[in-house]
Each structure stands twice: as structure tokens, then as C-alpha cells.
Amino acid sequence: MTDTDKKIEGHAYDGIEELDNGLPSWWINGFYLTILFAGLYFGYYMLGSGPALVDEYNTSRETHEQAIATKKSARPVASEEQLAASLKDPGKVKLGASVYASKCIACHGDRGQGGIGPNLTDEYWIHGGNLTQIMKTVSEGVLDKGMPPWGAVLTADELPAVVAFVNSLIGTKPTAAKAPQGVRAKE
């Protein structure tokens, strides 16, 4: 104990005496800076022109929706003939298989046999079985059935590739396939 330490009278427990030393100046300065920051923050966001959380959320949501709309409008709409041409391209089918493996297996099974989602290997389709209808279902999803819209997630190359791969699954007859659902597609 040095001469500059001040003892507090009556504060001795188990032989330990409490000293009355001040806090370090860096701690006190940090405390006052925190108070100053809180005052400026309150003034800007509560009393001034700072954006409210609801405004920031709405701005973020609008920006996100615009980005999705831009991506959808930039995506060329594929015709039945263009999609049919991608069926003959083994590279497209292989790309579609890799996208299917990363995004679709959880619901439609590893061989398209169905699970949570419908069986993709039979000739029965809930939302239409021609190539453009399959593309629309993959792109826009079916939210009331739990199918997410993949159009904003997949690239312009991946979307028709997935359609080509799904079409290649038709007629494969995997074991333990889910029962047919929907209407038989016209051939």
C-alpha cells in the first residue's frame, strides 16, 4: 500500500481493506463518449430526420422486389421448341442433374420418385406436363403446395437445364415411386 492510496473507514473484511481509488481516465472518457453518442443517436433517430426501422425495412424490401422483377424481366422466355432442343444437349441435362441434386432432391427424391413433392417419373402432372408448363412451375413455384419459386435463384442456363433433366426422368420407373398425381400429360 502506498501513501497515495486512501482507505475507506469501516470497510475491512477478512483482513482486506477497501481503497478509495478513482476509475482510470480512459474508462471515464469512454463512459462520457458513450453518453454523448447516445444523445446524438437519440436526437437523430427519435427527434430528427433519421429513418425509422419500418422505413429501412420497406426500402430494403422494395429494393429486393425490384431486383427480382429485373431478374425475371431480363430472363428470356423459352419456347417449347427451345426447351425441346435443350433435351438433346447432354451438357444441359448434366447441368440440370447437378442443379436438381442441390435443390430438388429433398422433395422429389434422388431419382424423381417423389416424396414430399410429386413423382416426376410418371406421365401424370399436377400443373401441366409440357415443357413450358414444367418451366413455369419450376420458375414461379407453387407456394400453396410448398414448391418455392426457383426462377429468381437459378440462372438463365440452369432453368432450362433443370427442365431438360426433369423431362429425362419421365418413364424411368424407379422403385418405391410415389403414386401418380394430377392429369395424364397428352403425348
Summarize the structure.
Helix content is 50%, strand content 8%.
List the helices and strands and how they pair.
Layout: E1 7-13, E2 16-19, H1 25-47, H2 53-74, H3 80-87, H4 90-103, H5 105-108, E3 124-125, H6 131-140, H7 158-169, E4 183-184
Antiparallel strand pairs: 1-2, 3-4
Helix pairs in contact: 3-7, 4-7, 6-7
Order of helices and strands: EEHHHHHEHHE
Helix content: 40-55%
User: In what range is the share of β-strand residues?
Assistant: 5-15%
Summed up, the helix count is 7
- Strand ordering within the main sheet: 1-2
Distance between the termini: 97 Å
Tertiary shape: elongated
Q: List segments where confidence is low: pLDDT < 50 over at least 5 consecutive residues.
A: none
Q: Which structural class matches the secondary elements?
A: mainly alpha
